[in-house]
Automatic annotation (TrEMBL):
GO terms for cellular component: extracellular space. Disulfide bonds join C60-C81, C104-C141, C183-C205, C237-C264, C277-C318. This is Corticotropin-releasing factor-binding protein. It is found in: Secreted. Binds CRF and inactivates it. May prevent inappropriate pituitary-adrenal stimulation in pregnancy. Residues 52-177 form the Corticotropin-releasing factor binding protein N-terminal domain. Keywords: Disulfide bond, Glycoprotein, Secreted, Signal. Residues 185-307 form the Corticotropin-releasing factor binding protein C-terminal domain. Belongs to the CRF-binding protein family. It comes from the Eukaryota. It comes from Alligator sinensis.
Amino acid sequence: MSSAFRFQCHFFLIFLATLKGETRYLEVRDAGEDDPFLLLSADLKRELSEGQIYRRSLRCIDMLSIEGQFTFTAEQPQLHCATFFIGDPEELITIDYDFVNIDCQGGDFLKVFDGWILKGEKFPSSLDHPLPTSQRYIDFCESNNFQRSIRSSQNVAMIFFRIHEPGNGFTFTIKKNTNLFPCNVISQTPTGRFTMLIPHQHRNCSFSIIYPVVIKISDLILGHLNGLYLKKPSASCTGVGDFVELLGGTGLDPSKMFPLADLCHSFHGPAQMKIGCDNTVLRMVSSGKHINRVTFEYYQLDQNELENRKENSIEEFCFPGI
Protein backbone atom coordinates (compact mmCIF):
# COMPACT_ATOMS: atom_id res chain seq x y z
CA MET A 1 0.00 0.00 0.00
CA SER A 2 1.17 3.55 -0.67
CA SER A 3 2.43 5.72 2.18
CA ALA A 4 -0.16 8.35 1.28
CA PHE A 5 -3.05 5.94 1.73
CA ARG A 6 -1.65 4.69 5.06
CA PHE A 7 -1.42 8.29 6.26
CA GLN A 8 -4.99 9.03 5.22
CA CYS A 9 -6.17 6.01 7.18
CA HIS A 10 -4.50 7.20 10.40
CA PHE A 11 -1.97 4.34 10.35
CA PHE A 12 -4.43 1.64 11.33
CA LEU A 13 -4.70 0.14 7.84
CA ILE A 14 -1.10 -1.04 8.25
CA PHE A 15 -2.62 -3.49 10.70
CA LEU A 16 -4.92 -4.87 8.04
CA ALA A 17 -1.91 -5.83 5.94
CA THR A 18 -0.61 -8.02 8.79
CA LEU A 19 -3.80 -9.95 9.49
CA LYS A 20 -3.81 -13.68 8.76
CA GLY A 21 -6.84 -15.60 7.57
CA GLU A 22 -6.79 -18.11 10.42
CA THR A 23 -7.72 -15.65 13.18
CA ARG A 24 -9.29 -12.27 13.75
CA TYR A 25 -8.20 -11.69 17.34
CA LEU A 26 -5.92 -8.79 18.13
CA GLU A 27 -4.48 -6.77 20.93
CA VAL A 28 -2.30 -3.70 21.42
CA ARG A 29 1.42 -4.30 21.79
CA ASP A 30 2.96 -3.13 25.05
CA ALA A 31 4.91 -0.29 23.53
CA GLY A 32 5.49 3.41 23.77
CA GLU A 33 3.06 6.01 22.55
CA ASP A 34 5.20 6.47 19.43
CA ASP A 35 4.55 2.84 18.44
CA PRO A 36 0.78 2.47 18.71
CA PHE A 37 0.24 -0.18 16.03
CA LEU A 38 -2.19 -3.01 16.55
CA LEU A 39 -0.79 -6.51 16.27
CA LEU A 40 -2.21 -9.98 15.84
CA SER A 41 -2.45 -12.13 18.98
CA ALA A 42 -2.55 -15.81 18.06
CA ASP A 43 -2.84 -16.83 21.73
CA LEU A 44 -5.75 -14.62 22.67
CA LYS A 45 -8.49 -17.08 21.73
CA ARG A 46 -6.85 -19.82 23.82
CA GLU A 47 -6.45 -17.49 26.77
CA LEU A 48 -10.14 -16.62 26.90
CA SER A 49 -12.15 -19.41 28.48
CA GLU A 50 -15.77 -19.88 27.48
CA GLY A 51 -18.00 -17.20 28.99
CA GLN A 52 -15.10 -14.97 30.01
CA ILE A 53 -15.27 -11.34 28.87
CA TYR A 54 -12.18 -9.81 27.32
CA ARG A 55 -11.38 -6.36 28.74
CA ARG A 56 -8.81 -3.72 27.92
CA SER A 57 -8.36 0.04 27.67
CA LEU A 58 -8.59 2.01 24.42
CA ARG A 59 -6.13 4.33 22.78
CA CYS A 60 -7.16 7.60 21.15
CA ILE A 61 -6.82 5.91 17.73
CA ASP A 62 -7.66 2.24 17.98
CA MET A 63 -9.09 -0.73 16.10
CA LEU A 64 -11.06 -3.72 17.37
CA SER A 65 -12.11 -6.99 15.81
CA ILE A 66 -12.97 -8.95 18.95
CA GLU A 67 -15.91 -9.01 21.33
CA GLY A 68 -15.31 -7.62 24.80
CA GLN A 69 -15.58 -4.62 27.09
CA PHE A 70 -13.43 -1.59 26.37
CA THR A 71 -12.77 1.58 28.37
CA PHE A 72 -11.32 4.93 27.45
CA THR A 73 -10.18 7.34 30.19
CA ALA A 74 -8.62 10.63 29.14
CA GLU A 75 -5.24 11.36 30.73
CA GLN A 76 -5.14 14.72 28.94
CA PRO A 77 -7.46 16.56 26.53
CA GLN A 78 -8.12 14.27 23.56
CA LEU A 79 -9.68 16.20 20.69
CA HIS A 80 -9.42 13.93 17.62
CA CYS A 81 -10.02 10.30 18.52
CA ALA A 82 -11.65 7.35 16.76
CA THR A 83 -12.09 3.62 17.21
CA PHE A 84 -12.69 1.39 14.18
CA PHE A 85 -14.60 -1.89 14.49
CA ILE A 86 -14.42 -4.76 12.00
CA GLY A 87 -15.90 -8.24 11.98
CA ASP A 88 -16.01 -11.19 9.64
CA PRO A 89 -18.03 -10.67 6.44
CA GLU A 90 -21.09 -12.43 7.87
CA GLU A 91 -21.07 -10.46 11.13
CA LEU A 92 -22.81 -7.30 12.35
CA ILE A 93 -21.39 -5.26 15.22
CA THR A 94 -23.38 -4.20 18.28
CA ILE A 95 -22.07 -1.42 20.53
CA ASP A 96 -23.60 -1.31 24.03
CA TYR A 97 -22.80 1.73 26.19
CA ASP A 98 -22.10 0.60 29.77
CA PHE A 99 -20.90 3.91 31.23
CA VAL A 100 -20.41 7.41 29.82
CA ASN A 101 -18.94 10.39 31.66
CA ILE A 102 -18.35 13.24 29.23
CA ASP A 103 -19.17 16.96 29.25
CA CYS A 104 -21.48 17.52 26.28
CA GLN A 105 -22.06 21.16 27.24
CA GLY A 106 -18.30 21.72 27.41
CA GLY A 107 -17.67 20.56 23.86
CA ASP A 108 -17.16 16.83 24.36
CA PHE A 109 -18.86 14.41 22.00
CA LEU A 110 -19.26 10.68 21.43
CA LYS A 111 -20.67 9.58 18.06
CA VAL A 112 -21.17 6.21 16.39
CA PHE A 113 -20.97 6.03 12.60
CA ASP A 114 -22.60 3.13 10.75
CA GLY A 115 -19.64 2.20 8.55
CA TRP A 116 -16.20 3.75 8.20
CA ILE A 117 -15.36 7.31 7.18
CA LEU A 118 -11.84 8.53 6.43
CA LYS A 119 -10.89 11.92 5.03
CA GLY A 120 -14.49 12.46 3.96
CA GLU A 121 -14.75 9.10 2.14
CA LYS A 122 -17.36 6.66 3.41
CA PHE A 123 -17.82 2.92 3.33
CA PRO A 124 -20.44 1.90 2.44
CA SER A 125 -20.87 4.80 0.05
CA SER A 126 -24.02 6.90 0.15
CA LEU A 127 -25.20 5.00 -2.94
CA ASP A 128 -24.96 1.62 -1.22
CA HIS A 129 -26.11 2.28 2.35
CA PRO A 130 -29.84 2.01 3.15
CA LEU A 131 -29.78 5.19 5.29
CA PRO A 132 -28.93 8.78 4.36
CA THR A 133 -25.59 9.93 5.73
CA SER A 134 -27.13 12.11 8.46
CA GLN A 135 -28.95 9.11 9.92
CA ARG A 136 -25.79 7.01 10.02
CA TYR A 137 -24.46 9.15 12.90
CA ILE A 138 -25.73 8.39 16.41
CA ASP A 139 -24.71 11.21 18.76
CA PHE A 140 -24.66 10.45 22.49
CA CYS A 141 -24.98 14.14 23.29
CA GLU A 142 -28.26 14.51 21.39
CA SER A 143 -30.74 13.50 24.07
CA ASN A 144 -33.53 12.99 21.54
CA ASN A 145 -31.31 10.62 19.56
CA PHE A 146 -29.68 8.65 22.37
CA GLN A 147 -29.48 4.88 21.97
CA ARG A 148 -27.75 2.73 24.56
CA SER A 149 -27.39 -0.16 22.09
CA ILE A 150 -26.43 0.40 18.43
CA ARG A 151 -26.11 -2.24 15.71
CA SER A 152 -24.23 -1.73 12.46
CA SER A 153 -25.65 -2.51 9.01
CA GLN A 154 -22.46 -4.31 7.88
CA ASN A 155 -19.24 -5.75 9.29
CA VAL A 156 -17.65 -2.35 10.03
CA ALA A 157 -18.53 0.58 12.27
CA MET A 158 -16.67 3.28 14.18
CA ILE A 159 -16.93 5.87 16.94
CA PHE A 160 -15.60 9.43 17.06
CA PHE A 161 -15.00 11.13 20.38
CA ARG A 162 -13.60 14.29 21.93
CA ILE A 163 -12.92 14.64 25.65
CA HIS A 164 -11.46 17.79 27.22
CA GLU A 165 -11.31 16.94 30.93
CA PRO A 166 -8.74 14.40 32.22
CA GLY A 167 -10.45 11.56 34.05
CA ASN A 168 -13.59 11.60 31.91
CA GLY A 169 -14.34 8.75 29.55
CA PHE A 170 -16.65 5.88 28.73
CA THR A 171 -17.01 2.10 28.64
CA PHE A 172 -18.76 0.02 26.00
CA THR A 173 -19.23 -3.65 25.16
CA ILE A 174 -18.80 -5.04 21.65
CA LYS A 175 -20.86 -8.03 20.50
CA LYS A 176 -21.10 -9.78 17.14
CA ASN A 177 -24.35 -10.88 15.47
CA THR A 178 -24.84 -13.12 12.45
CA ASN A 179 -25.83 -11.47 9.17
CA LEU A 180 -27.59 -14.04 6.98
CA PHE A 181 -27.21 -11.99 3.79
CA PRO A 182 -23.99 -9.95 4.06
CA CYS A 183 -24.09 -7.01 1.70
CA ASN A 184 -21.39 -4.36 2.24
CA VAL A 185 -18.13 -5.84 3.50
CA ILE A 186 -14.53 -4.78 4.12
CA SER A 187 -12.24 -7.80 4.08
CA GLN A 188 -9.88 -8.26 7.02
CA THR A 189 -7.51 -10.34 4.93
CA PRO A 190 -5.69 -10.05 1.58
CA THR A 191 -6.78 -13.58 0.63
CA GLY A 192 -10.22 -15.11 0.74
CA ARG A 193 -13.32 -16.48 -0.95
CA PHE A 194 -16.81 -15.05 -0.74
CA THR A 195 -20.29 -15.51 -2.18
CA MET A 196 -22.49 -12.43 -2.37
CA LEU A 197 -26.20 -13.23 -2.57
CA ILE A 198 -28.99 -10.69 -3.09
CA PRO A 199 -32.40 -12.45 -3.06
CA HIS A 200 -35.03 -10.32 -4.82
CA GLN A 201 -33.88 -7.13 -3.12
CA HIS A 202 -33.43 -3.71 -4.72
CA ARG A 203 -30.05 -2.80 -3.24
CA ASN A 204 -26.38 -2.31 -4.04
CA CYS A 205 -23.64 -4.28 -2.27
CA SER A 206 -19.87 -3.68 -2.25
CA PHE A 207 -17.05 -5.99 -1.16
CA SER A 208 -13.88 -4.01 -0.45
CA ILE A 209 -10.36 -5.47 -0.39
CA ILE A 210 -7.78 -2.94 0.79
CA TYR A 211 -4.90 -4.46 -1.16
CA PRO A 212 -3.75 -4.83 -4.77
CA VAL A 213 -5.16 -8.22 -5.71
CA VAL A 214 -5.89 -10.85 -8.29
CA ILE A 215 -9.64 -11.44 -8.26
CA LYS A 216 -11.14 -14.58 -9.78
CA ILE A 217 -14.89 -14.77 -10.37
CA SER A 218 -15.96 -18.40 -10.65
CA ASP A 219 -19.74 -18.03 -10.82
CA LEU A 220 -22.12 -15.18 -11.62
CA ILE A 221 -25.88 -15.55 -11.78
CA LEU A 222 -27.87 -12.54 -12.97
CA GLY A 223 -30.50 -14.27 -15.10
CA HIS A 224 -28.83 -13.19 -18.34
CA LEU A 225 -26.25 -14.60 -20.78
CA ASN A 226 -22.46 -14.73 -20.87
CA GLY A 227 -20.17 -11.74 -20.95
CA LEU A 228 -17.25 -9.90 -19.32
CA TYR A 229 -16.66 -6.36 -20.59
CA LEU A 230 -13.68 -4.14 -19.89
CA LYS A 231 -14.83 -0.64 -19.13
CA LYS A 232 -14.77 1.57 -22.24
CA PRO A 233 -16.59 4.82 -23.02
CA SER A 234 -18.84 3.01 -25.50
CA ALA A 235 -19.27 -0.26 -23.60
CA SER A 236 -20.97 -0.52 -20.22
CA CYS A 237 -23.95 -2.03 -18.44
CA THR A 238 -25.98 1.16 -18.78
CA GLY A 239 -29.65 0.31 -18.86
CA VAL A 240 -29.12 -3.13 -17.29
CA GLY A 241 -30.84 -3.40 -13.91
CA ASP A 242 -28.63 -6.18 -12.56
CA PHE A 243 -24.85 -6.24 -12.98
CA VAL A 244 -21.49 -6.49 -11.24
CA GLU A 245 -18.70 -3.96 -11.60
CA LEU A 246 -15.07 -4.01 -10.55
CA LEU A 247 -13.67 -0.78 -9.11
CA GLY A 248 -10.18 0.33 -8.11
CA GLY A 249 -8.70 3.34 -6.36
CA THR A 250 -6.68 4.74 -3.49
CA GLY A 251 -9.51 5.80 -1.18
CA LEU A 252 -12.31 4.16 0.76
CA ASP A 253 -15.51 5.28 -0.99
CA PRO A 254 -16.59 3.00 -3.89
CA SER A 255 -18.53 5.84 -5.52
CA LYS A 256 -15.24 7.75 -5.95
CA MET A 257 -13.25 4.86 -7.41
CA PHE A 258 -12.29 4.08 -11.01
CA PRO A 259 -14.76 1.81 -12.86
CA LEU A 260 -12.62 -0.92 -14.39
CA ALA A 261 -14.91 -3.66 -15.68
CA ASP A 262 -18.63 -4.43 -16.07
CA LEU A 263 -20.12 -7.90 -15.85
CA CYS A 264 -23.59 -7.70 -17.33
CA HIS A 265 -24.46 -11.37 -17.87
CA SER A 266 -24.36 -14.68 -16.05
CA PHE A 267 -21.49 -17.10 -16.61
CA HIS A 268 -19.89 -20.18 -15.10
CA GLY A 269 -16.15 -20.62 -15.14
CA PRO A 270 -13.21 -18.47 -14.11
CA ALA A 271 -12.81 -14.84 -15.08
CA GLN A 272 -9.60 -13.39 -13.66
CA MET A 273 -8.32 -9.86 -13.38
CA LYS A 274 -5.29 -8.26 -11.73
CA ILE A 275 -6.02 -4.94 -10.08
CA GLY A 276 -2.96 -3.08 -8.80
CA CYS A 277 -4.87 -0.54 -6.70
CA ASP A 278 -4.66 0.19 -2.99
CA ASN A 279 -8.35 -0.68 -2.77
CA THR A 280 -10.31 -3.12 -4.95
CA VAL A 281 -14.11 -3.31 -4.83
CA LEU A 282 -16.51 -5.82 -6.34
CA ARG A 283 -19.92 -4.15 -6.43
CA MET A 284 -23.24 -5.77 -7.30
CA VAL A 285 -26.24 -3.68 -8.39
CA SER A 286 -29.57 -5.47 -8.05
CA SER A 287 -32.98 -4.41 -9.35
CA GLY A 288 -34.82 -6.74 -7.00
CA LYS A 289 -36.29 -8.75 -9.89
CA HIS A 290 -33.88 -11.68 -9.61
CA ILE A 291 -31.89 -13.75 -7.16
CA ASN A 292 -28.40 -12.48 -7.94
CA ARG A 293 -25.26 -14.28 -6.84
CA VAL A 294 -21.54 -13.96 -7.43
CA THR A 295 -18.77 -16.19 -6.09
CA PHE A 296 -15.18 -15.00 -6.19
CA GLU A 297 -11.80 -15.48 -4.59
CA TYR A 298 -8.89 -13.09 -4.27
CA TYR A 299 -5.27 -12.96 -3.23
CA GLN A 300 -2.78 -10.16 -2.83
CA LEU A 301 -0.43 -9.30 -5.68
CA ASP A 302 3.20 -9.74 -4.73
CA GLN A 303 5.80 -7.09 -5.44
CA ASN A 304 6.99 -8.74 -8.66
CA GLU A 305 3.45 -8.81 -10.02
CA LEU A 306 3.01 -5.16 -9.15
CA GLU A 307 6.24 -4.20 -10.89
CA ASN A 308 5.66 -6.29 -14.02
CA ARG A 309 2.46 -5.37 -15.80
CA LYS A 310 1.06 -8.32 -17.71
CA GLU A 311 -1.93 -9.11 -19.90
CA ASN A 312 -5.30 -8.43 -18.26
CA SER A 313 -3.66 -6.25 -15.63
CA ILE A 314 -5.21 -2.86 -14.99
CA GLU A 315 -3.05 -1.26 -12.32
CA GLU A 316 -2.34 1.62 -14.73
CA PHE A 317 -5.79 2.95 -13.80
CA CYS A 318 -4.58 3.55 -10.24
CA PHE A 319 -2.41 6.32 -8.93
CA PRO A 320 -1.03 5.21 -5.53
CA GLY A 321 0.77 8.50 -5.03
CA ILE A 322 -2.48 10.48 -4.83
